[in-house]
Amino acid sequence: xxxxxxxxxxxxxxxxxxxxxxxxxxxxxxxxxxxxxxxxxxxxxxxxxxxxxxxxxxxxxxxxxxxxxxxxxxxxxxxxxxxxxxxxxxxxxxxxxxxxxxxxxxxxxxxxxxxxxxxxxxxxxxxxxxxxxxxxxxxxxxxxxxxxxxxxxxxxxxxxxxxxxxxxxxxxxxxxxxxxxxxxxxxxxxxxxxxxxxxxxxxxxxxxxxxxxxxxxxxxxxxxxxxxxxxxxxxxxxxxxxxxxxxxxxxxxxxxxxxxxxxxxxxxxxxxxxxxxxxxxxxxxxxxxxxxxxxxxxxxxxxxxxxxxxxxxxxxxxxxxxxxxxxxxxxxxxxxxxxxxxxxxxxxxxxx
Length: 352
Hints:
This protein has helices at residues 8-16, 30-43, 62-71, 73-78, 94-103, 118-126, 138-147, 179-187, 203-211, 233-239, 264-269, 279-293, 316-340; strands spanning 21-24, 48-53, 108-112, 130-135, 151-155, 161-162, 194-197, 216-218, 247-250, 258-261. By secondary structure, it is of the alpha/beta class. It has a seven-stranded parallel β-sheet. A three-stranded antiparallel β-sheet has the order 6-10-9, with no helix packed on it. Helix 1 (8-16) runs parallel beside helix 2 (30-43), helix 7 (138-147) crosses helix 8 (179-187) and helix 9 (203-211) crosses helix 13. The longest helix is centred in the last third of the chain and has 25 residues, at 316-340. It is globular. Belongs to the nitronate monooxygenase family. NMO class I subfamily.
């Protein structure tokens, strides 16, 4: 949830309610991350996590980026803004952020867009930090296990925002695996605890992934509409707006596959966006901000998981309470079915 949606208030509220809040460090400076960590600590004494983006290798074709820049020239004129500079660092300040997290540890650090080295994992382990690696395939989970990670976050293709693939290979853009199938594959591949994420919006869905082999569940889109979320008001409204009926994986806004609500910009530019992250992210940054300022969601990156229509406008702590109550209710139903056998009681079958 990098890019503004994640806030210290949101992370602290979730942790205070008994969940594990997470602070996104992506797109922030190392000092910016540190200041937000201090804010979380001022709001809660409970555990929380910090998510880091892994440095990205150089594989973008500069010529393809320039072609895309030319394609977006009309958008820049329309929104009266400039297209961004694509001569940017690809490491997101990773080493500087890691140094801060070693010197002033937080309870948990998670990694996206790749796998940290064993050396980095061990350095965090020495200061008492639990490490989690986002994975989208069994092979990525095995790499995380080899690196010594404490757990993996298993991200199904249903997830909103960026897919956390370790390699950005355009040939696999449509090869994403659904969460339930992926959980089973990863469970049979590694011995690590599994955190399930992707499209989860209700406590009953959490019960389902726990029954399927997950140890924990992680929700993102469900918290986008909370008052503590830093998502733009237009983004929050769009999640349940009947004009936005579906999501799609696209490179249009960042150059990396990410799931968002299908709007005009995604439809018109998605088919032509190059595999060039983070260059495209910075190229379109001004456009997205200008569209938001103009009150036009049709050119904003409206990241959302497949369950976005199930979003509920509740304070974060209340949403955690509701999810826990739904989880408990679903578990009670499953336990009742297990005791009485399939089809007993309410006329449903044992697979509910």
